[in-house]
Amino acid sequence: MMHINFYSLNLNCKKSQETIDLSHQVIFFHGKVSSGKSSIARLINFCLGGNLERTIAIQKEVISVSLELAVGNYKVLLERNAESSSIVTASCINEQGESFTINVPVNAGNQPVYAGQVYSLSDLIFYLLNIKVLRIPAKKNVQENTSLVRLTLKNFMWYCYLDQSKLDNSFFRHEDGTKTKSSKEILKYIFQYSTQKLIELQEKLTNTRKERFQKHATAEGLREFLKKFNFSSDEEISFLEESTKAKLDKAKIEKKRIEADYSSNTHTVDKLRNEIRELIMSLTSLEQGITDIERRIEQQTSLKSELISSKFKVAKNHTIANVFQGINFMNCPDCGTNLSKRKVNDDTCKVCLSPKDLENPEIRDDLEVIQIDLNERIRELDSSIDLHKKSLVQSKKEFAAKHKIRQELDQKLQHDLKQYESIFLSNIRDVDKSVATFTERLKSIKRMKLMPREIKKLEEVAHKLILQERELKRLIAEETANFVKGEELIEELEEVFLEILIEVGMPGISAKDKVSINRNNWDVSILPAGEEYLRWNFYNAGSGGKKTLFNSCFLLAIHIIAAKHDLPIPTFIIIDTPMKNIDKEVNTDIFKSFFDYLYKLASSILDKTQIIIIDNNYIPPSTEITIDFVHRYMEAGNPENPPLIPYYDGP
Fold first, then answer.
1. Are residues 501 and 605 in the same domain?
2. Which of 23, 200, 477, 554 sits most deeply, having the most CB atoms within 10 A of its CB?
3. Which residue has the higher pLDDT, 387 or 583?
4. Are residues 51 and 166 in the same domain?
5. pLDDT tens string 55-64
6. For residues 64 and 74, is the Cβ–Cβ distance under 8 A?
7. Digit-coded pLDDT (tens) for 70-98
8. Which of these, 265, 278, 267, lies nearest to 409 by C-alpha position?
9. Residues 15, 101: one domain?
């Protein structure tokens, strides 16, 4: 059994904090309409990850809601924002006092949020119950590309919570195309027509088939691709490789032959090349000589200019000495100092204080010698410059003549080579293209040579996967063969369901009738007096009251068998208005029979199952039955028996 029981439901409203006591085994909420009775069940379901019908009262007043419950050996507090938040805050503590708190998504994400295996709130509940997450194929027939979908606590809730809005128009989601398979898989799992081991084997089989299909498809695709290029086998590739090698070797030999022929055909111009090479060396030497002569002429011309400038400087110094001779300076011509106050001897210069000869001022005798020497040097430079200029002219003429000869030789060499190169280039380009083509083709072939081997590996893996599939099918068959217990449980479910219908007084049911549950589609039918042609079921039961009673009784039958044989189903039942569409005044016997039977179950086989009943009318248990029972009357505007939100006055 999945031991889940509730302690309390807590509402955080805008003006108050409301707590609904859920700590008893059987809880009966009754009262007038619009008092919030159904909202209690919906809020419990909301805290467990379900959707919430947002009534006006909930939209306007409820901020958040929390549910305190027991899950296996853990005490758990689930907190969820009333704005349909996708996150639930779960606080858990076990019997040893170990605790943790996590924010867990309602729907599974891509990454685990706890213990490496909890992806959603449902996973957390299963983790606390020490149950592995269940997965089933997404389609009825398991195929190569079929994915697996998760079964969640919501799926189990179909057999634990009967919602008032769907109680008379929905038979445990069996008619809902989007949920039919998962609802039936839950029944198969509960009644041992499917086990956790079987689900795991089916999941392995699905994954193995998918992998095998992918390997096989990849191998076939590669083989078809290679066939277009004659690469479908090692023999074909080896033959093509050898053929390409031979062609490449032949092309390389042809290239060497063409290069050798070119070398031999062009030896006649080697003499011409040598002449041009010697001529280039001579031109280079001449060019360097011309540069040296020009540099020497430039240097000597510059020196001549400096010598001429020196002549002017010597003449200028002599003239200045004569001009300033005998002048009596009053102030220093350099700094302007007054010289009249300076006491000097008559034989000393007032300016520089040097001794002087008053009668014969100093006159340098070597000025004339210097002038003669400068003139001689200038004449020598003129002669040297003239000689260099003549040599420069001669060198330039010789350079021009040899340069012309070189141009003629270059033209002749180009003409001679052109005859050979045009043929050589044409031949060598063709053979180079062949060499490059065969080289790249050989590289591609070597790469392609690995592909058949990889294809063979893929096919070997696919073959091994086929063997694994056969083994998994054998194990699945063995596991399925063990479903004798499951068949016995379904037969017992048929008997118990009929007993309940008789016990509560379902109209048109007698002990001679028979209940039949189809093992393929799980349709539940009534066979009056065992007659097949009179078969009827939920969908053609007729009145809404009979449909409501049909669903409620079948739910009780499931929990009776589950409790008796310790089958995996949550240990709580929530039925919102089991007497929907049934008038208490007209059908008093059905009312009393149903609730008396329910209380009797709660005190016996379902004594470990928590039962929450919501209905407009209230029938208490008889004094002969001892159970942990509590009821709450709810009425809007009644302070002594307040509604779910006491202060709220609205629709």
1. yes
2. 554
3. 387
4. yes
5. 899 999 999 9
6. no
7. 999 999 999 999 986 899 999 999 999 99
8. 278
9. yes
What CA–CA distance (Å, rounded) separates 254 from 265? Answer: 16
Q: What percent of the chain has pLDDT over 90?
A: 38
Task: Please tell me the distance from the alpha carbon of residue 104 to that of residue 441, in angstroms, as a whole number.
Answer: 58
Can you give the residue range of the structural domain that contains 332? 267-429
Token pair, residue 524, equals 């539940």
For tokens 């590289």, what's the residue? 443
Q: What are phi and psi of 427, to 5 degrees?
A: -70, -45
Q: Which residues make Cβ contacts (< 8 Å) with residue 534, sequence separation at least 6?
A: 527, 528
Contacts with 418 (C-beta within 8 Å, 6 or more apart), sequence order: none
Asked whether residue 641 is domain-assigned, the answer is no
Q: Are residues 183 and 70 in the same domain?
A: yes
| pTM as predicted | 0.63
Q: Give how far the C-alpha of residue 297 lies from the chain's centroid of Cα atoms, to the nearest Å.
A: 81
Residues 167 and 290 in one domain: no
Tell me the CA distances in angstroms from 498 to 288, 462, 535, 567, 597, one per residue in order.
127, 51, 14, 20, 14
**Residue owning tokens 């002549």:** 311
Q: Angle at Cα 387 formed by Cα 382 and Cα 391, nearest 5°?
A: 145
The pLDDT confidence band at residue 29, using thresholds 50, 70 and 90, is: very high
The Cα 442–Cα 158 span in angstroms is: 67
Determine the Cα angle at 1 with ends 114 and 108, to 5°.
Answer: 30
Do the bridges between strand 74-81 and strand 87-94 make them parallel or antiparallel, or are there none, so unpaired?
antiparallel
Interstrand relation of 26-31 and 629-634 (parallel, antiparallel or unpaired): parallel
CA neighbor of 188 nearest in space, from 145, 118, 137:
137
Whether residue 216 is contained in a domain is answered as no
Please tell me the distance from the alpha carbon of residue 301 to that of residue 534, in angstroms, as a whole number: 140
Residues 401-459 pLDDT 10s: 888 887 877 777 776 666 555 666 666 777 787 878 878 877 776 766 667 777 788 88
Q: Residue 66 CB: number of other CB atoms within 10 A?
A: 19
Within its chain, how far is the Cα of 241 from the centroid?
42
- What is d(CA 118, CA 129) in angstroms, rounded to the nearest whole number? 12
Residue 328 · residue 339 · CB < 8 Å: no
Q: How far apart are CA 376 and CA 414, in angstroms?
A: 57
Q: Whole-number mean pLDDT of the chain? A: 83
